[in-house]
Design a protein that fits this description.
By secondary structure, this protein is α+β, with helices and mostly antiparallel strands. The protein folds into four domains: 43 residues, Membrane-bound Lytic Murein Transglycosylase D, Chain A (Roll), CATH 3.10.350.10; 53 residues, LysM domain (Membrane-bound Lytic Murein Transglycosylase D, Chain A, Roll); 96 residues, LysM domain (Membrane-bound Lytic Murein Transglycosylase D, Chain A, Roll); 117 residues, endopeptidase domain like (from Nostoc punctiforme) (endopeptidase fold (from Nostoc punctiforme), Alpha-Beta Complex), CATH 3.90.1720.10. 22% of the residues lie in helices and 11% in strands. The chain has a six-stranded antiparallel sheet. α2 crosses α3, α6 crosses α7 and α8 crosses α9. The longest helix has 22 residues. It starts with a helix and ends with a strand. About 20% of the residues have low confidence.
Length: 401
């Protein structure tokens, strides 16, 4: 009988161990998706997940220019993981002060991250950190941003949110596109504007003051000039030796001269700027006024620009907010088929990184059907030039003429 009891006891112990083993919980599977949040961008998400941007794009069948939106789910590549949530802090007693109420700033049309930081009286770094944003993050009207510690809303408002007008104040009076008057018969010389020229540079070239050049041609310092436009050289000025002066105000035909020679045929050049709408004029004038400023990656003025930064700063002049990324800008506005329809002043023209790649790599602002102003590359400056049509991959129109 004693032996039977021992056998039963051993059997009970074994059964209990088996039951414990079976009922042990399995390890929870690691999360396989990441939910896109406000202010997220692809390279930032890759960094947070601890994976390479290339792997994140490949796993989700995306490109570096793909648009992502809040709520979108991205598959986490192999080896990646969600960032750990911040540790919960337990208050030692009920006397611990409650968390500071976070004020909110409501983004309006025309806002930029640097402009919002200045408005709130905080550094751009603090604003980005407080809202988990990057310098290239996309903001949009209606988005709410936390005000960093030490900052304040306009008008010293400290409520949880502030309602701001969704429509910007009246657009600044447009600068009337300058129309060059007909050349006076007594004009000694005419300067033909070249690609990359600026009014101050032309004044220096013809050895006159900028004020004299503007008065002689009835222009202002923000007037829009374009390649082929003719400017009268003020009294006392002179054309450089390499610049051909045109002293004939009207086109002529070849006629035999008294000594058997023939006169030179003068090709007429339009004396008026391309027609620009009153809404677009301030934007184009601003962009033209930035000529000569150095290219610097990820900047949007006032002293340096990259290509999308120039477009963003110029369109902000007329109350249109653009993201600081050419790939995102290429998704805005109305698509224009440039093979069938003429490009118009103000259109955003996008180039692909290499022929046939289809990847947006550069953007510029059209000033005519064939000319644009852009910030080309490191070591170069903001300037005008001919649009390389063989590399154009998209044209977007943000303002209907």
């Amino acid at each position: 009988m004693s032996r039977l009891r021992r056998v039963l006891a051993v059997a009970c112990i074994a059964a209990s161990a088996a039951a414990v083993t079976v009922s042990a919980p399995a390890h929870a599977a690691a999360p396989s998706t990441y939910v896109v949040q406000n202010g997220d961008y692809l390279s930032g998400i890759a960094s947070r997940l601890g994976v390479k941007l290339y792997d994140l794009l490949g796993t989700n069948h995306l490109q570096v220019s793909s648009l992502i939106v809040p709520g979108m789910r991205l598959t986490i590549p192999k080896g990646g993981s969600l960032p750990k949530p911040p540790a919960q802090v337990q208050h030692a007693s009920s006397t611990t002060p409650a968390p500071r109420p976070t004020s909110k700033y409501l983004v309006v049309s025309g806002d930029s991250l640097s402009g919002i930081a200045a408005t709130l009286g905080v550094s751009l770094t603090a604003l980005l950190a407080d809202n988990q944003l990057g310098i290239a993050s996309f903001i949009y009207p209606g988005m709410k941003l936390s005000v960093p510690k030490g900052g304040h809303l306009p008008g010293a408002v400290s409520a949880q949110s502030i309602v701001k007008p969704t429509v910007k104040p009246a657009v600044k009076p447009a600068v009337k596109p300058a129309v060059k008057p007909a050349v006076k018969p007594t004009a000694p010389a005419v300067y033909v504007v070249l690609s990359g020229d600026s009014l101050s540079g032309i004044a220096h070239t013809v050895s006159v003051t900028l004020d004299a050049l503007l008065k002689t041609n009835e222009l202002s310092v923000t007037s829009f000039i374009y390649p082929g436009m003719r400017l009268n050289v003020p009294k006392g000025g002179s054309l450089p030796g390499s610049h051909i002066a045109d002293v004939t105000p009207k086109p002529t035909t070849a006629k035999p001269g008294a000594n058997g020679t023939t006169t030179t045929v003068t090709v007429p050049v339009p004396t008026a700027t391309p027609k620009v709408s009153a809404q677009l004029a301030p934007m184009i004038n601003f962009a033209m006024a930035q000529q000569g400023k150095p290219y610097k990656f990820n900047t949007a003025g006032p002293d340096t620009y990259d290509c999308s930064g120039l477009a963003m700063a110029a369109y902000a002049e007329i109350g249109i907010s653009l993201p600081h990324f050419s790939g995102a800008q290429a998704l805005l506005g109305t698509a224009i088929d440039w093979t069938k329809e003429s490009i118009k002043p103000g259109d955003l023209v996008f180039l692909e990184s290499s022929k046939g790649s289809g990847i947006v790599d550069h953007v510029g602002i059209a000033i005519s059907a064939t000319q644009w102003i852009h910030a080309p590359r490191t070591g170069d400056v903001v300037r005008t030039g001919g649009i390389p049509m063989f590399r154009v991959v998209a044209v977007r129109r943000l303002v209907t003429p």
